[in-house]
Amino acid sequence: MKLAIDTSTKQAVIAIESDGEIVARYFQPRATQKVIFGELSSMLEPDTLAQLDGIAVGLGPGSFTGVKIGVMSAKTLSWARNIPIVGVGSLDAVAASTPAHENPEISLVVAVPSTKGEAYIRIYRLENGRWIPMNGILDTIIEKDSLDSILP
Fold it and tell me: What is the pLDDT of residues 35-75, one digit of tens each?
């Protein structure tokens, strides 16, 4: 079983995967570490926690405090249960969950709202059935109105 935690945006996400299927998920605005562990205890039976064999945690971009909460929650559980942990770029996680297609000319744009009318974006191209970040545009922050100016 794998656990995923992403608290980098206004919508915190906790998910548990088993045998390739999402078996539990939780969404909440701005989760604290106390909320994360409380929700985990209600999502997992006591003996199920021992079945966790990996943790993925979202690294943003997004709220600095939110990222810290997610990373510290994941690190605490990793340390306490001796479970491997991996950090995942939050935009990359969205891209990876987007189905591939046959047309290599189509790009994927993943955008997450920031503050002050801005957005974090990353543009991807399809390569061997996987979304790969395009060169030169990595976690760019732009004004939402200027998105058209950088699209390929």
Answer: 888 888 888 777 777 889 999 999 998 888 889 999 999 99
Angle between helix 33-43 and helix 64-81 axes, rounded to 10 deg: 50
Domains of the chain, by residue range, sit at 2-88, 91-149
Spatial CB neighbours of 69, under 8 Å, sequence gap ≥ 6: 7, 31, 32, 33, 36
Q: Please give the full DSSP string across 85-145, using - where no structure is assigned.
A: EEEE-HHHHHHHTSPP-S-TT--EEEEEE-STTEEEEEEEEEETTEEEEPTT-SSEEEEGG
**Residues across the chain:** 152
Tell me the fold of 2-88. Nucleotidyltransferase; domain 5 (3.30.420)
Q: 10 Å Cβ neighbour count for 152? A: 10
Enter the pTM of the model. Answer: 0.81
